[in-house]
Amino acid sequence: MRILFTLHNVACKGGSERVVINLCNALCEIKNYEIGIVSYYTDTSEKEPYAYPINPKVSVSYLYNFDDMHKDYRGLKRILWRWIKPLVINCRMNRYKDYDIIIESDFAFFYPRFRVKNTKYIKIVHSVIKKWKKKNNLFDCIVFLNEQELLKWQRSGKHIVKIPNFIPILPFEDILPKVLESVMKKDDIDSNLHALIKSHYESLLNKSFYNDTQGFILAKSILQAWKLQNLESNNPHTKHKLIAVGRMDAINNHKGFPRLIHAYSKIAHKFPSWQLEIIGQDQGQKALLEKQILDLQMKDYIFLKPFTSDMESVYLNADIFVMSSHTESMPMVLIEAASYGLPIVAYDIGTIRDCFHDNGILVKDNDEKAFCKALSTLMENEEKRIIMGQNGIKLAKDTFSKERILKQWLELFQSLTHIKS
User: Fold this and answer.
1) Number of structural domains, the chain?
2) In a domain, 279, yes or no
3) Using one digit for the tens of pLDDT, what is the confidence trace for 198-255?
4) How many whole angstroms from its chain centre is CA 17?
5) Cβ count within 10 A of residue 314
6) Which of 213, 181, 212 is nearest to 197 (CA)?
7) Looking at the whole model, is its pTM more than 0.90?
8) Where does the Glycosyl transferase family domain start and stop, copy by copy (predicted)?
């Protein structure tokens, strides 16, 4: 089966790009599956052509082999482009006529008004939509990422399903056993640590960390120690850390970082051994956030960090994950944080409830007082953080594992094409 995914810009460091690339990397390993990505634009400002690693088995091509200059159109030129864009993109996409399925993942770029015979068209909706467009019915299937959006729109189209994002690697399931095996063979590690691991080796392999507090703490410590050995600087994890992750976008402000900074400034002085790190690519908002931090006298408590592809280190060196978004569909960072055993505090924006099952605290949207209370509760209570962390790794395994989610995708492909894998 040949499947083509679309991306607005394969070099963009965003959540939807990571979701699509993860899916492509997983599908290309399945026998008789050929996977391709067509990027509508490239990005010459980026050093690397791809934001995230892409399996060599995945073919990558470009609809326009230059930066997105169309977004800078103004006046009549902008109006004309918005009107003809779907037709132009549709015609150019019809060059890819040898694919069984084409999966659109851009917000509003491609609609299959002119279809290639025998090709099926799927649209993944990575964002929250406020109005149903009739053009969506041109697709053979619409895929939402969360239950709330599915329930809201399931009667609007002919074939609407929910398939959430998946976690490519479960740290406690996939990485820990390999680390344990490696550690047991080494002679140059601390003798006390070696003895401790040896005494818990069998129980950790039997996944005691899901229910046993000591097992969870030890498993997490082993993963941290293993990762630090692979870092250029072995900075000790001296301070407790809250993290928030996302693009610092001045135009849309989807991630709500200003309200996060304001809320944390209310409690930061009570917790001098804690710090908040906001990690992400700057898209015009960083300077505004820096000014807000200075105005609130929070420069010793709140830090802005650039995007990093090594999110593993970020999660392993954090204690709490915080989300202040105004709107989300199914954020990868939320389920990834859960998979690393991080308790989560977030505003309840309706569409992220699938990511919660006793693994964090959901707070009424815009209730800053309740948000601060939730943060304080977890910062003060290590036992609660551990219990929620254990619930998080269970949720990640039971709901968002690669095997579980890939099975849903394969069933969808087969139902549309009647081609068995």
Assistant:
1) 3
2) yes
3) 888 899 999 999 999 999 999 998 898 888 764 334 444 468 999 999 999 999 899 9
4) 9
5) 20
6) 181
7) no
8) 234-394
